[in-house]
Write a structure and sequence with these properties.
Elements lengths: L1 H11 L20 E3 L3 E7 L2 E4 L15 E4 L1 H18 L10 E7 L4 H13 L15 E6 L4 H13 L4 E3 L16 E3 L5 H7 L2 H4 L3 E7 L2 H16 L3 E8 L5 H13 L4 E5 L2 H13 L6 E4 L12 H7 L3 E5 L7 H6 L12 H9 L32 H5 L5 H21 L22 H10 L1 E3 L5 E3 L10 E9 L2 E10 L9 E3 L26 E5 L8 E5 L4 E2 L9 E2 L4 E3 L6 E3 L2 E2 L6 H26 L4 H4 L3 H21 L5 H38 L10 H24 L3 E5 L5 E6 L3 H25 L8 H25 L3 H32 L6 H5 L2 H4 L4
Parallel strand pairs: 2-5, 2-6, 6-7, 7-8, 9-10, 9-11, 11-12, 12-13, 25-27
Antiparallel strand pairs: 1-5, 3-4, 13-16, 14-15, 16-17, 17-18, 19-20, 21-22, 23-24, 26-27
The structure holds 2-acetamido-2-deoxy-beta-D-glucopyranose (NAG) (4 copies).
């Protein structure tokens, strides 16, 4: 629809009454540059970068548009075409006896102009008559152009309808490979892939947060979308996606500048021809928003253009992709011959001259008096000397699109050569043995030959269009370096579309000069990457590249940066402080060489030695009243069992073994039962003694050693039975418990119920002792053991009652330490409460160690022996 309107617009400009041809319509002739020949090749090129656009009012007949912004770099492409045509005409092998000619028009970066140009070429009258072919002397067989995709598309739509071959020298848009839409379109470049291959590397460069600047035209929109999707698919994020165009107002421009200025990105992907962004670059410089690195797709066509100094500062360090160029030997000599009065006459030579020498032609003789190319006071004379300035003016160090225009002409020449030559059968065409003549040079036949033609470029590379009409070619990665105001494009790498994935792209980063803001490769990220030991947590409502880092929890780790998740360490390992490694868990047990272990061992040993000395004292003073009064036999048993109690702590310390595990709880409970049952027996004896004296009765016969022996014996046997059954049914065993942060080397008690049964039995004995002693506490006598026993049992019970909760609430070696502490404390309590007062009397108050004092009354003397 849009194209139709453009065509109608052009028809509007038609002027009916100028001269009469075989065709009846006429319009403004477009400025055409022709060189005659037997066969013509058309060219639609961007030479000027814009048009003086005025909205037609249609009150008067609309005027032809004039173009502005002559670009030598673009102009070079036309010269490339001309150079190729001349080279072929001089070649004895290619198309002998046939001269090629050409017709070239300027599309001025404008779609209507491009459509007008192609229609004018096809009709052959300099005017656009759609569908008419009015070429009289020689046939036009194909078109070269345009450089840009957005200009090539409307051209390809028309050439497609008319089955006219078109070879673009720069359009990379992938849609153009669609032969259903564009059946007669070919190109000497490949489709959009190069920037894609480059975009795929962004992640490895650390560029996950990038901005995008697109030309506000079909190709900008379409290509921009593809690039954006690719970046997102690779896990990158787009910080902004802005459109820009030559025709934007200052207000629109300001908005884009603000977006770029506010953004934190360091890398901006540029998918726009240079003309659209010139004003923007100046504005960026003025706003102090320079210092971003631009990555230019091949749509940008990296060149010095006519950028201002400010724009060049902003663009400094830009990395661009352009299709790989080959060599064009003798092209520079050809350029040296350029002259306004040359023969043959060169296209666009007068505006070129003005641009190159900053001069102005006087009006007479100028093709387009109304085109102001340059404002200068100097008048061009034609005597100016081009020598020495060619390389700099034409940037011949990088021929890119010019080379591709040159290749396009060669493609036509080779196709024509096959078409017009005699078929030897070697080149795959049928009609073996026949020869063509010049009337066979028809455009639709040329398409067939173009599809099959194969030829070698000057540098020996095989050229052949693929099924989509593309010429798969590599791209060069260029770096724009502005040093001392001189513009340099330095090749820093290449992209080989045909290569396997890994070798597709190679870039020498040490050869890249970034800009004044980045001495090294810049990073462009939304959030800094998370160190090992941290994981990413997406920020609410922001792109996925923006996240917070939070540390892994205990027992989890990550050993790489930017982890999404933390991993749990294996069960025998635990994460280290930094959470970036799993380390084997420490094996923990209460050992002999740590302070806690040493302290407990020393305490146990000292207390047992202390108990031993009390035992020795008791044996030494065994005939003194105080000892005789307290049932010597029971005292000895109690003291010995207390020594064992203290010593049994040692079994709890040290690395658990099968043996020590078996011994620990059983030894402890048996020894403890013995000591508590002796205390119980003692209490019973105290009561019996009193009862027996009072009643003077048969109870006396129980005062012998039978009762204490039986009590102690029965209790011990009971406890030993429980322990035996325990050892028999579920013996304790050593185990490595790795449920927590450490591996705890401990004894598994087997059935816990046995452990609590032994404890419960001891508790039961202790309660009975306590109760009996409590009842007997008020019996007369200055030395009443019952009081001491009550008190000692109180201490004992307190210790063991508080033991239960602390035993259950501690873990690892501290559980063991708690039990040892309870053993030591309760045994020491018994020892001190029952025996220390006696020792005090024996050693320090020997005067009290007599019968009277001890019995306190005459009645008690009787049972003291
Ligand atoms: C070219 O022309 C010359 C002379 O007119 C003739 O001898 C020669 O055979 C021609 N070559 C071809 C390939 O037609
Ligand atoms: C990369 O560039 C540096 C600097 O220009 C150069 O010294 C080096 O040889 C290049 N490396 C390769 C592999 O081309
Ligand atoms: C461009 O960048 C290079 C490298 O950082 C620097 O040396 C040079 O001065 C810059 N040019 C301009 C015009 O800022
Ligand atoms: C990270 O840990 C895993 C599993 O422990 C290991 O296979 C891998 O090699 C480690 N990677 C690095 C970079 O250390």
């Amino acid at each position: 629809m849009r194209k139709l309107l453009q065509v109608l617009l052009l028809l509007y400009w038609l002027d009916k009454g100028q001269s009469s041809h075989s065709c009846s319509l006429q319009g403004w002739p477009m400025e055409t540059f022709s060189q005659s020949g037997d066969i013509l090749i058309g060219g639609v090129f961007v030479v000027h970068s814009g048009i003086n656009f005025q909205q037609p009012t249609f009150h008067k007949r609309p005027k032809p548009v004039s173009c502005t912004g002559f670009h030598i770099r673009y102009y070079r492409d036309v010269l490339g075409l001309m150079f190729a045509v001349n080279e072929i005409n001089n070649s004895p092998e290619l198309l002998p006896n046939i001269t090629l000619g050409f017709s070239a028009l300027d599309s001025c970066m404008s779609e209507p102009q491009a459509v007008g140009a192609v229609l004018s070429l096809l009709s052959g009258l300099g005017n656009s008559f759609p569908g008419y072919n009015c070429h009289t002397s020689s046939a036009m067989v194909g078109i070269v152009g345009d450089e840009y995709s957005f200009l090539s598309i409307p051209i390809a739509q028309i050439t497609g309808v008319l089955h006219f071959p078109q070879i673009s020298h720069g359009a990379t848009l992938s849609t153009l490979s669609n032969k259903f839409l564009f059946p007669s379109f070919f190109r000497t470049v490949s489709s959009i892939d190069p920037i894609m291959a480059f975009v795929d590397l962004f992640g490895s460069f650390g560029w996950t947060w990038v901005g995008m600047l697109m030309a506000d035209d079909d190709v900008g929109h379409y290509g921009g979308q593809i690039i954006q999707n690719r970046i997102k698919r690779n896990g990158g994020c787009i910080a902004f996606f802005e459109k820009i165009h030559l025709s934007y107002s200052d207000k629109q421009m300001k908005r884009v500048v603000d977006v770029i200025k506010r953004s934190s990105v360091n890398v901006i992907v540029l998918h726009s021809p240079d003309v659209h962004i010139k004003a923007l670059l100046d504005a960026l410089f003025n706003e102090g928003a320079a210092g971003k690195i631009f990555i230019a797709s091949d749509y940008f066509g990296l060149s010095s253009g006519d950028f201002s100094k400010k724009a060049l500062k902003v663009l400094n360090g830009t990395i661009g992709l352009i299709p790989r160029t080959g060599t064009m030997p003798e092209f520079e000599e050809f350029l040296l011959n350029l002259h306004p009065t040359g023969n043959p006459s060169y296209p666009f030579i007068r505006p070129f001259w003005e641009k190159a020498f900053s001069c102005q032609w006087t009006n007479e003789g100028s093709e387009r008096p109304n085109t102001p190319h340059i404002k200068a006071n100097v008048t061009c004379t034609g005597e100016e000397d081009l020598g020495g300035r060619v390389a700099q003016l034409f940037e011949t160090n990088d021929l890119s699109y010019t080379y591709h225009a040159y290749l396009a002409v060669y493609a036509y020449a080779h196709a024509l050569h096959s078409l017009l030559g005699c078929n030897t059968g070697s080149n795959g065409f049928y009609n073996y043995g026949t020869c063509g003549n010049i009337s066979d040079a028809q455009h639709w036949k040329v398409i067939r030959y173009l599809k099959k033609t194969k030829f070698h470029s000057k540098s020996g590379q095989m050229m052949k269009f693929n099924a989509q009409g593309d010429l798969p070619a590599s791209s060069d990665v260029l770096n724009m370096q502005i040093l001392n105001d001189s513009f340099n494009l330095v090749k820093v790498g290449m992209i080989d579309i045909e290569a396997t994935l890994g070798e597709k792209i190679s870039v020498n980063f040490s050869a890249i000069l970034w800009n004044n803001h980045f001495l090294q490769m810049p990073i462009s990220v939304c959030s800094n990457s998370c160190r090992p030991g941290y994981r990413k947590v997406p920020s609410q409502g922001r792109p996925i590249c923006c996240y917070d880092c939070i540390p892994c929890s205990e027992g989890e780790m990550t050993n790489y940066t930017d982890a999404d998740e933390c991993f749990r360490c294996p069960s025998d390992q635990w994460s280290n402080e930094d959470r970036d490694r799993c380390i084997p868990k420490a094996v923990e047990f209460l050992s002999y060489d740590e302070p806690l272990g040493i302290t407990l061992v020393l305490t146990a040993v000292i207390l047992s030695i202390f108990t031993l000395s009390i035992l020795i004292i008791f044996i030494q003073y065994r005939e003194t009243p105080i000892i005789k009064a307290t049932n010597r036999e029971l005292s000895y048993i109690l003291l010995v069992s207390l020594i064992l109690c203290f010593l049994c702590c040692l079994v709890f310390i040290g690395q658990p073994s099968t043996f020590s595990c078996l011994l620990r709880q059983t030894f402890f409970s048996v020894v403890f039962s013995i000591s508590i049952s002796s205390v119980l027996a003692k209490t019973i004896m105290v009561i019996l003694a009193f009862k027996a004296t009072r009643i003077n009765s048969s109870l006396r016969k129980w005062l012998g050693p039978t009762i204490p022996r039986n009590v102690v014996g029965i209790c011990s046997v009971l406890q030993i039975s429980i322990c035996s059954f325990w050892l028999y049914s579920s013996p304790p065993f050593p185990i490595l418990n790795n449920k927590s942060q450490k591996i705890i080397f401990e004894c598994n008690e087997g059935q816990k119920v046995f452990f609590y049964m032994t404890l419960g039995f001891m508790g039961f004995l202790a309660m009975i002792s306590f109760l009996v002693a409590f009842l007997a506490r008020n019996l007369p006598g200055s030395f009443n053991e019952a009081k001491l026993i009550t008190f000692s049992m109180l201490v004992f019970c307190c210790v063991w009652i508080s033991f239960i909760p602390s035993y259950l609430s501690t873990s690892g070696k501290y559980t063991v330490a708690v039990q040892i502490f309870a053993i030591l404390a309760s045994s020491a309590g018994l020892l001190s409460c029952i025996f220390l007062p006696k020792c005090y009397i024996i050693l320090l108050r020997p005067e009290r160690n007599n019968r009277d004092f001890i019995s306190g009354s005459k009645e008690r003397r009787n049972w003291i022996k």
